[in-house]
Amino acid sequence: MNMKLTTQVPFQSISNPINYDSKILNIGSCFAENIGDRLDYFKFQQIQNPFGILFHPQAILKIFQMASEETVFSKSDIFQHQNLWHHFDAHSRLSHPDAEFLLSNLNSAVGILSTALKNSTHIFITFGTAWIYRHLASDKFVANCHKVPNSEFSKKLSTSEEIKVIISEIRSLIRSQNPKAELTFTISPVRHIKDGVLENNRSKAHLFSALHEVLDQFPNDLNYFPSYEFVLDELRDYRFFKRDLVHPNELAVDLIWEKFKLNCIENSAIPTLKKVENLQKSLAHRAVNPESEDFKAFEIQRNNLKTELQEKFPFMQF
For residues 260 and 35, is the Cβ–Cβ distance under 8 A? Predict the structure, then answer.
């Protein structure tokens, strides 16, 4: 008797899968970084979140606008709080004690993103939440509050119609810069329960409703990768989450990566991917006896594989 123990989530392969000649731009929430880190590990050509992790579609639209306009930041654009300099449109990992260092990194991020927007063959965007914060003093939406007191912000749940407009603007902006890139959206399986369980569900519902309306509007131009559905419906068990019971754990990311490989990576790239994996594992290997003949033979084999890969793909650095 055949028994099904999980609900199978259907995955549709993207129309133009990734290979080792692809140039990938990966933008969005911390889940975008889970997949991005795997792409880095397997030595694909990838740009990942130059402005750091971003959660709301408006925050993603804002950095795309800055990149397309080649915005130049000055000291009037940043602020100091708790001995660090910050920018409200960037993640706190860019924050720094030195203002000029932060400005240099912000302007570098604009240049990196501007080039990636124009040159990427594949763009992946992950949305995390529909909750957004407005800075009261400047009357502007922010991507990150940087631990500034809550009293300085108002919090709002963007409607599905508002998000639909934002996603449509993201698509239009990308297409104005890059008409041919394979554009794929996903919704993060990370639950933002700091907003509240019911509030998180409302937030995700608004994202789903808005995104799928845009996907239905442009069925031949946009792809969807169902990472949320896979984690919450097919895995559907707290053993696939970290101790915080919110973020997918390493096993869950492994399983999502297998789905990603199957649906987003060209079959012809898999042999190279396996060679990269073998080399990465061998580089992590530590010899018990470095002077042994066995280890010397192992080193020769490892160096030969490294040379083979780097001669074929000069961009690979190990």
Answer: yes
> Residue 44 in contact with residue 57, Cβ under 8 Å?
no
- Distance, in Å, from the CA atom of 124 to the CA atom of 88, rounded to the nearest integer, reads 23
User: E-strand spans in 94-181?
Assistant: 122-127, 131-135, 140-142, 153-157
The CATH number assigned to the domain holding 195 equals 3.40.50.1110
Domain containing residue 301: 267-318
Q: pTM for the full model? A: 0.94
pLDDT tens for residues 268-295? 999 999 999 999 999 998 878 888 888 8
Task: Provide the β-strand partners of residue 153.
Answer: 135
Does residue 79 sit in the same domain as residue 94?
yes
| Residue 289, Cβ density class (10 Å: 0-12 exposed, 13-18 middle, ≥19 buried) | exposed
Query: Do residues 86 and 167 share a domain?
Result: yes
What CA–CA distance (Å, rounded) separates 81 from 85? 6
* Alpha-carbon gap, residue 283 to 299, rounded angstroms: 9
* Structural domain count, the chain: 2
The pair of structure tokens assigned to 219 is: 């069925």
